[in-house]
Amino acid sequence: xxxxxxxxxxxxxxxxxxxxxxxxxGQRDWVRFTAEFxxxxxxxxxxxxxxxxxxxxxxxxxxGPDTGCPPITFEGEAVHEAKILAFGVHGRWRRRGVGTALxxxxxxxxxxxxxxxxxxxxxGDSVGNHQLKLRLGFAVHPVVRDDDDRGCYFVLPLAQRx
Length: 162
Prior knowledge:
Layout: E1 4-7, H1 16-24, H2 28-32, E2 40-48, E3 51-62, E4 73-74, E5 77-78, E6 80-89, H3 98-112, E7 117-122, H4 127-135, E8 139-145, E9 148-157
Parallel strand pairs: 6-7
Antiparallel strand pairs: 1-2, 2-3, 3-6, 4-5, 7-9, 8-9
């Protein structure tokens, strides 16, 4: 099975199957979410034989403002990250390399975009996503959100400075 990753750039009819998958997996709000500090937004889709089977939406943003903190700086410049806001793979295609391909595509793009790290949050019921992130070398930081005490932030550093 060959997996192709492409960025969803427009809103034309060719993208309708991607949006159907986003809706099926209940991720439309996170795919559409915007904040004033987002520098850019990217929606990647994974295709097999031309059919979308997964997606990952990330934004490039300064590290800090999304948590209510001022931007982290290094030598007077804001340090940026790629933050994954939405990620999903159709149930039939899970554990077949689709999620790994999408996550690796985000890591590669984030490096090209000068990001210091890739970061995401995953709820406690997303055990498969936890395992995927750990396999890819992400560091993990448990966090409690509402009544979810098994959620985690995952961070993958990209750049060495100094």
